[in-house]
Amino acid sequence: MAQSLFGTCDTTADTAIKVVTCADFDTLISGIVINVYFTYANTNTSISLNVNGTGEKVVYVDSSSMLEWEAGATKSFVYYNNQWRLINPTSVGTTYSAATTAANGLMSSSDKIKLNGIDEKYVPYIKTSTGSTNTVIDAPENNWFGFLQQKNDNSVSI
């Protein structure tokens, strides 16, 4: 099982070699995970980590824009194949808009149109009544969910 550690970095935003201090870290072992709190933002698109003086090791990520972060960010890295790999990359200033019928957001505008077109009578609701042995779950008439009966052993019968 990989060990996970926590360290801090006070290296300035424009410095490419990030110096990390981490208690209980002394050897680079494949699979070790370190979570690093960065006091300053990072504006460099190519960086290395030097954890407790173990040597400068390049940080790998799929896109250099993912190496930018804001001050106070905590980033996770795993050591593998003589390099640090950023586990949780995100771009600075990434925002997501709500989808509308005219513009994409976290879903496409065509999916938003479909979602808006669902008739409320097809949206299930659950009404429960509890007896001494069963919980009854009803759905509206003409709903494909039908009638479900949950038994005390958590099995469900239709």
Produce a short descriptive summary.
The chain has one helix at residues 109-116; strands at residues 4-9, 17-21, 33-38, 48-51, 57-60, 74-80, 83-86, 127-130, 134-138, 148-151, 156-157. It is mostly beta strands.
Write a concise keyword list for the protein shown above.
single chain; 158 residues; mainly beta; 2 domains; seven-stranded mixed barrel; four-stranded antiparallel sheet; 1 helix; 5% helix
What does it look like?
The protein is mainly β. It contains one helix and eleven strands, in the order E-E-E-E-E-E-E-H-E-E-E-E. The strands form two sheets. Strands 1-2-4-5-7-6-3 form a seven-stranded mixed beta barrel. Strand 4 and strand 5 form a beta hairpin. It is elongated. The chain starts with a strand and ends with a strand.
Helix content: under 10%
Distance between the termini: 44 Å
Strand order of the largest sheet: 1-2-4-5-7-6-3
**Secondary-structure-derived class:** mainly beta
Q: Which consecutive residue ranges, at least 5 long each, have pLDDT under 50?
A: 125-129, 132-140, 142-150
Oligomer: single chain
Task: Give the amount of beta strand, in percent.
Answer: 25-35%
Radius of gyration: 26 Å
What global shape is seen?
A: elongated
Order of helices and strands: EEEEEEEHEEEE
Q: Mind describing the biggest β-sheet?
A: 7 strands, mixed, barrel
Helical run tally: 1
